[in-house]
Amino acid sequence: MAETEQNEQKPKVSESKSETATRRAASDKSERVADNTSAIEQWIYIGPTIKQLGLETNSVFTESIPKHIAKKMDEQPELRSMFIAVNDLAQKNGELAAVGSELHTAYEALEAKKGVI
Predict the structure, then answer these.
(1) Which of 32, 64, 84, 104 is the most buried (most CB within 10 A)?
(2) Is 110 exposed, middle or buried, given 0-12, 13-18 or 19+ CB atoms closer than 10 A?
């Protein structure tokens, strides 16, 4: 798999049959990303702890993300970028530490919003 494709992968979300049908109607890219997630079994959350969602920094998820978190991912795009493949942790931690990077900016945005998420 090309490195760019692997970096674009996002975790699966637990979903009902109707939600599955809705997801399948999404864009080609979204479908490709969803189909490719089966190759990755573990995701790690590298964002700030958000008590309201029961999310702690470095929480690991296997196969899927709980629905209540997935719903917030749709509302807060920064949240989605904080879920990464465990295999990418070292690289993403470097990006997270780099002030001004996309990951760092997303982290800071979540940190500022975490009391109202």
Answers:
(1) 84
(2) buried
Amino acid at 67: K
Reference 114, options 67, 61, 45, 65; nearest CA is 45
**pLDDT tens digits for range 62-95:** 988 899 999 999 999 999 999 999 999 999 999 9
Residue whose pair of structure tokens reads 């749709």 in the numeric block:
74
Burial 18-53 (b: 16+ CB within 10 A, else e): eeeeeeeeeeeeeeebbeebeebeebbbbbbebeeb
Q: What is the pLDDT of residues 20-38, one digit of tens each?
A: 443 444 333 334 344 444 4
The pair of three-digit structure tokens given for residue 76, joined into one six-digit string = 């807060």
CA 95/CA 98 separation, integer angstroms:
5
